[in-house]
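Quick sanity check, Acyl-CoA thioesterase 2:
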Amino acid sequence: MGALRETLDLERLDDLLFRSGSAATRNTRVFGGEVAAQALMAAGRTVPGDRHVHSLHAYFLRPGDPGSPIVYQVDPIRDGGSFTTRRTVAVQHGKPIFHLSASFHRPEEGYSHQPPKTERPEPEDLLPGEEVIAAADPATREWFDRVHGDSPLEIRFAEELPRFAALRGESAPPIQRFWFRTHETLPEDDPLLHACAVAYASDLLLLCSSVAPHARTLDGGDFQFASLDHTLWLHGVPRADDWIFYDQEGMWAGGARALCRGSLSDRSHRLIGSVVQEGLIRPVG
């Protein structure tokens, strides 16, 4: 079980230069959401505290090495009257592995609307993700432990994962829905930390939804997969240590790529974030 605040506690080397510790993971590459969250944290620590992140746009360039620190170089693109823009490049072994542009906005009043409420189970009515996976096959248990065993997030699945249908040789709709929250309580007066936690979670399992109609799993050995680019819009200040519902959909696939989207809402059905990601799903063999 990872500690999110420790993961996001970057060492400040200079005004615009930060460094992470080594990633605590059993994977051979750093989880993309971790790099995104750290890059956003680096950017946010150069921004006035009265401005909150409202969007990030990122490209995954190279896999991150979990055994080495990552250096984050922040470029102060613009400080305007209402908006502040930052660019962060993550560098490891002398090469850029990740590029992020983020925008921060001073809170303002304005018109407001959002999509209607959707039906969903409450998190208290669902089993912890670990209990659901414990009843699965050994390969799924190993997969979940590898991708989630060190995660700082608690997960509860709203319905059967498409992965289970694929292991039965069945296709499924490209939809995944689950609740998440951080294991640890986060300070209420640190909106940047909560935003970075949501950025971390926004990459979780999203690309898996894209292969459900094809009765495949990404770790089945017949796919080369990776996140290519990732966008997150935050529609307000989230609380990542309270339950957030993540509704994911694999919208399109073709040309060895897939486009996925997701919506993030809190317990009151308030839409707090929107996600779009394109990923590589290249059949091999």
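Posting the structure with no commentary besides this: The radius of gyration is 18 Å.
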